[in-house]
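Reminder to self: keep the SMILES exactly as supplied, no canonicalising. Ligand is adenosine-5'-diphosphate.
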Amino acid sequence: MRTTGRYEVTSALGENVRAFVPSALPPQDPPLALNDDLAERVAKAEEALRLLNLAAAMVPDVDWFVYAFVRKEAVVSSQIEGTQATLVDLFAFEAEHTLGGARDVEEICNYLDAMRWARRQLSSAKGVPISVRLFNEAHKRLMKGVRGADKAGELRRTQNWIGGARPSDAVFVPPPPHLVGALLSDVEKYLHADDTLPPIVRAGLMHVQFETIHPYLDGNGRLGRLLVALLLEHWGLLTHPLLYLSLHFKRNREDYYRLLTAVRVRGDWEAWTRFFVDGVATIATEAATTAKELFALTTRDQARVLAADATSVSALRLFALLPRHPLINVAGVAALLQTTLPTASKAVQTLVDVGVLQETTGRKRDRTFAYTKYLERLRVGTELVPERSAAHGKRHRLHQGRR
Ligand SMILES: Nc1ncnc2c1ncn2[C@@H]1O[C@H](COP(=O)(O)OP(=O)(O)O)[C@@H](O)[C@H]1O
Ligand SMILES: [Mg+2]
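Structure tokens returned for the bound complex:
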């Protein structure tokens, strides 16, 4: 048991409550105990990341894995706190660009935009470095045009609380607003400081600290997870952002919240770190397997397209688009291939005939086609959780077109 912060009385909604003010990283008194067990788990996670990097290096076109896996991460991270959109919804939206009722998909597109922007900053010498400014700029993009967007990109100036209808029955009350800026600066400093802890562990510590500070009125979970992905790549543990770690948090959401709490109330950084690095190991292994399976699937299917009697250059070019556009319609294909509707239609038909594409709407017009086998494999874990999907049962079925 160690103390990880202090309490300060603050007022929220006219009530006096005790806000938690975390001590700066790294854990102290005592320092994080990287005993044999934990060190072994860290080594396992590092090895799993190495194998994921290897899988990425073996495929001829890693970009489409990046494309797909970043989308998977974006969807799952958004789902943790209730976004009601699935990976299939995202691809359907990207195929049709219909905004009707697509508010939740917008949140996911924002995540993609924030991630793209932040990666570009960190990969360029003149870009914004890991800093509070980077957090704010990424937050601005993450929250664009959605609920609470007026405060996008700004540290909160009011007292918030987590869980419970009123501050007095909150699960916890993050630090008072006047301390948020300084606390985040401490996080920034820690991320630039020398520390003997392995970078995976440090990324995990950062995440807890970020969630404990809860610097924004909303979007703290998504941004805090985005920062993990960003750091792992920035620190060279990942050659590409292929680790959809949020799936681990989504699957173990109770543990996720419980262990965040355990750091605050019992100073149990070790339990959190175990959970975090085990998650990295599990998801890295899954991601490597998924990448290999998707690669095998597309290689097999490409051979089928090549062997088809009616095959054509257009059909092959269309096939090459499918990993990025696993849901398509004829107009979209024509635009992407810069060809006519009849040529696009013929290419689609060829891929339907060889069993690569399936029509999903059952209609004669405005039809949508899916690379079903690919989607089925990629979307594992991205379905809505059962109690939520009940009310939205129709929304996440794969064999379904326009809503
Ligand atoms: N008990 C807790 N202690 C610390 N952080 C928590 C706790 N419970 C939830 N969180 C974090 O708060 C996030 C939700 O905060 P919020 O600002 O609504 O983020 P988002 O809008 O991205 O979901 C969760 O995803 C989690 O990361
Ligand atoms: Mg929220």
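Points to follow up:
The chain is about 55% helix and 5% strand.
The pocket of adenosine-5'-diphosphate (ligand 1) is lined by residues 80-81, 162, 171-172, 211-212, 218-222, 224, 257, 260-261 (CB under 6 Å).
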